[in-house]
Amino acid sequence: xxxxxxxxxxxxxxxxxxxxxxxxxxxxxxxxxxxxxxxxxxxxxxxxxxxxxxxxxxxxxxxxxxxxxxxxxxxxxxxxxxxxxxxxxxxxxxxxxxxxxxxxxxxxxxxxxxxxxxxxxxxxxxxxxxxxxxx
Length: 135
Hints:
elongated; alpha+beta; 4 strands
């Protein structure tokens, strides 16, 4: 989440969040790569960075909340920005923000965290096998 005062630095905020999201996509990509040496079980597939459709970010400028996301297309990061999330300027906008944050929390709990846990466990297992091949 990046915050700015009304009328200040929206371009800077977009750049800051886009830079963070790009870097944040790079780390899981390295973890996925580290775990490729770990065999998968029957009926399982190894996790991929493509399993995550996007990584979310928020920019709050004054009363306005904007959603920004990063996704991967081939080997490049694509930034999707400036979709309004709502505004704290009125009660309807506040409800929009709360509902959107609840949906985002649901996605984190059901998709992102399980995926990240699996990726980090596989990377840790790969390092453990590399450092102690005897088990």
